[in-house]
Design a protein that fits this description.
Helix content: over 70%
Distance between the termini: 50 Å
Order of helices and strands: HHHHHH
Number of domains: 2
Shape: elongated
Structural class: mainly alpha
Length: about 130
């Protein structure tokens, strides 16, 4: 599926939401007593049906399939994710300050997380 279809699929819910709000508020300001039905039917019926139909028309993909289509992340992003994980482990008390600093230094010395894993296996072999 090309990016224009995926983009259109993502735009349908916000467009329907704005239309429902617009019609509902217009009915409210014009004094119609049934204005609340626009909101109820729009958000409970029309929005889910159009979302399901757009998935059927444009081809529903699982999250893992979408990730496969996306470009691979750069090593900096991968390294940033690893740093975020380390920060959360340190903040939750799973690792102490020394271990946190050692792992951060190890990550910053290497370009990718794979380099860190390779260095860790080399270190384990040397200790054995």
């Amino acid at each position: 599926m090309d990016s224009s279809h995926r983009s259109l699929e993502r735009q349908i819910p916000p467009i329907v939401t704005l239309l429902v709000l617009g019609f509902g508020l217009t009915a409210l300001f014009l004094g119609y007593e049934w204005f609340w039905m626009v909101f109820a039917l729009g958000f409970a019926v029309v929005l889910p049906i159009l979302t399901i139909l757009s998935n059927a028309v444009f081809g529903w993909e699982s999250e893992s399939e979408r990730r496969e289509d996306e470009p691979k992340s750069e090593p900096v992003d991968e390294q940033q994710d690893a740093l975020d994980i380390l920060r959360s482990r340190y903040a939750s008390g799973k690792i102490d300050e020394g271990e946190f600093e050692r792992r951060v230094d190890l990550l910053l010395e290497n370009e990718t997380v794979e380099d860190v894993k390779a260095q860790r296996t080399r270190n384990e072999r040397e200790l054995s």
